[in-house]
Amino acid sequence: MTISLEAGAIPEGLGVIKPLELPATKYRQGTRQMFNVVITVGQLSQLIVKRPDPNVPIEGNRKVDGRRALAFGRYVQNKDTWVAPAIIVRAPSGDVTFNAAHEFGDGTAWGTLSIPIQQLTDIQILDGQHRTLGFFNAIDEMNSKITRARETELAAERNQDEATKAMYTKQLVELRRKRDRVMAEHISIDLAVVSSKESTEMFVDINNNSKGVNPDYTSYLDRRDVVNRVSADLMEKHPLLVGRVEIGQGARMSATNPNLLGAKGVADIVRAVHVGASGRIGARVDDEMRSDETKAIRRVERFLDVMVDSFPDLQAVRDGALTPIELRNSSMLGSLTMWRILASVYRELTAMNDRNPEPFSRIEVQTFFESLGPEMKAIPVTDPDSFWMQTGAFKVGGSAPQAMQGALIQLANALTNRARESRVLDHERPED
């Protein structure tokens, strides 16, 4: 048998390793030759082939925080209106070529950027490691979810379980829609043609000259988050907070700030009232808060009211007789960490659950908080036998608990147990 193949049917260049070619804008910045390309999220791995690794820092760059990258990837998946600045990368000098299709009088040009395939592994990220890893994580997660849903759908089909099959068929439609949406959207890449030494200098300059957004201001502005909306309502209406919250536009929250709390601090208290000092607002709690924001606000209002009624110092702050700075110098109540812990204790004592079949009444919580009044003023903490030091949440000489998650949990548990023990003792005392 003879097989014939016409030479004209073979694509030109077949078998040749071709460079990556991208439409690009050429420009100059700081004497450097720069190129801007816009690609889809699905094409990212074609240009940045070396996935950022939290265990292997890129030379001249900071170590990647895996949790932060994961959070960004989920943000992209779950927010149709996601936004991200350009990722800045570098390519070795002399390894890329640019064919201009049109040049402009301002020195910029449109054309085709060509990068040899063998040089792609030399492209390194200067700014945007977490965004890049986040995109990779998002694609991985979406593909994994689709694979699992598809396997479950097929298993249901084999078992003739029509209800389960229909449920996962519907789920697959939504998962694929989300993946198609993310993969087809675009990101901007700025590529600098520089040496390794120059790229390190660029990284240093980028970080030295960037101004991070104050987290208090971010919390104040972002009203898409139900926690921030609840916080904003409390800042505008609760007598203790009105006019005493730093929103972060002009200053940062510090020991010398005239305000009682920062906007992010108020949001942290809202979270602690709903899920505890170390908890996170998951999908279920988020849905509950969104479905009845008035109820969510009232829940935190009750906690703030109990705090004011329990501690005369907070009453004095509310009435203007004591400044927040004076409070911080004389009491642990000036510490956001202590506020978060007390909010967590309040939640544990008042919630109906298996650990707490008989929730505390408002007056019981207030009575317990009042008993802590003298302890709140015992700063700095120096006595190794004091209640505070025994919790393991304080350092000698500290005026507030440590803010680490382990310390938060330890102290919240210690105070909750103390409240329950006090309640038992009260019940066991004979009546007069």
Keywords:
disordered C terminus, two-stranded parallel sheet, 432 residues, 12% strand, 2 domains, seven-stranded mixed β-sheet, alpha+beta
Protein architecture, described:
- The structure is a single chain.
- With 432 residues, the protein is α+β, with helices and mostly antiparallel strands.
- The protein folds into 2 domains: 20-209, no CATH class; 215-427, no CATH class.
- The protein contains 17 helices and 9 strands.
- It has helices at 44-47, 66-78, 129-158, 162-184, 196-209, 215-221, 226-237, 263-275, 283-291, 293-310, 312-318, 324-330, 336-350, 362-371, 373-376, 387-390, 405-428, and strands spanning 20-29, 32-40, 87-91, 97-103, 109-115, 124-127, 186-193, 245-246, 261-262.
- Helix 7 crosses helix 10 (293-310).
- The longest helix is centred in the first third of the chain and has 30 residues, at 129-158.
- It is globular, with a radius of gyration of 29 Å.
- The model is unreliable at 428-432 (pLDDT under 50).
